[in-house]
């Protein structure tokens, strides 16, 4: 089977056609198109339809179907931990865990995830969320260009996991495409962390790279409650790389990511002069993964087409009709015998949901009956979301966490102030704490007044701490409630 892998990015798109015969894979064509090359002038923008049409025209060899890597900005990344490992239970509970952190309704989203064992009976989950509307638009867009979509995949997952085939270690992957970079953390051959960031258009961007690696290590340490040291960093897209990067855990060795070698694919002679390891990695990875039977998280996958299968294998279907009949009879028997097992599994799932309910809502002593358990959980989640919102003086409600974020980002990092208490009553937020001197209190007042969510700041009281050198203060913050952030 021949298949074309396509990766769409902010800068452009790349395509790689891979032919698989008898288990061996050959790269028969590759092409890449930059948006800036299609624009009529420097300020013009090129939409994806025009970009994909140009990419399709530039390919010398196209596959029967396409597997597409979507842009990084079209998905949301979340990491959560759930107290069970069964995939079906995770599928049911994960949306409830994610809903308070998402802006769009769940029915408008497509959630895919990767999990790994964490602790006793827990699962550490990397959730990738895409919008149904965008996915459907992509499918229609591709079909209108004569390209039959087989897989719509999240960015970076396939390339990171293909590298993990030959790497048992805990490692980072860094992949540069023009001025953007993808950082993936792979552990136990699963992606446990994804991050995207911009690089300077000029220069090697190693200072930005080092900073992002540091921040990722710190974020992992906070999530895992311990420092995790990767054995190496695999990079692609840089012509020259340092031997190592300096991190809080010491020097980490840096190596070139050899994704072509990891896939086992061979380049045709006419492809070799055009090939570049970094830019084509995403398209190559998604094509090889789709041809090998996709086992990674995916936003959309083409379903089984019986008519197409029968048309290609009509003779075999007829000759094996008797065997199919026997299999159907065995399936009926298995279905009858499986009724009992299904009932038992359903009871186990309901018990797990009750345990989750009681562990989440500890004020309830008993879980509702199975018939109303789901509606009860939805109601409590809705109440929790309402309590996490502040209406303010405007028409649009603001998440309380956004108010706290606004305060946190407004204060200078070197400000010597310790906040000990926050109280929100009728649109006024009272901030209490300790400061090194009165000027620090005044600086905090000035910084908070610059926030779009704050109408005014008043120093209600300030006095020197009894028996100490610091000042006790109480500041009253008037909130606007406007959606300015």
Automatic annotation (TrEMBL):
Mind telling me which Pfam families this protein's record contains?
PilN
Might you report a single GO cellular component term?
type II protein secretion system complex
Which BP terms from GO are recorded? Answer: protein secretion by the type II secretion system
Gene3D superfamilies, sorted: 3.30.420.380
Q: Which InterPro entries match?
A: ATPase_NBD, PilN, T2SS_protein-GspL
**Could you identify this protein by its name?**
Type II secretory pathway, component PulL
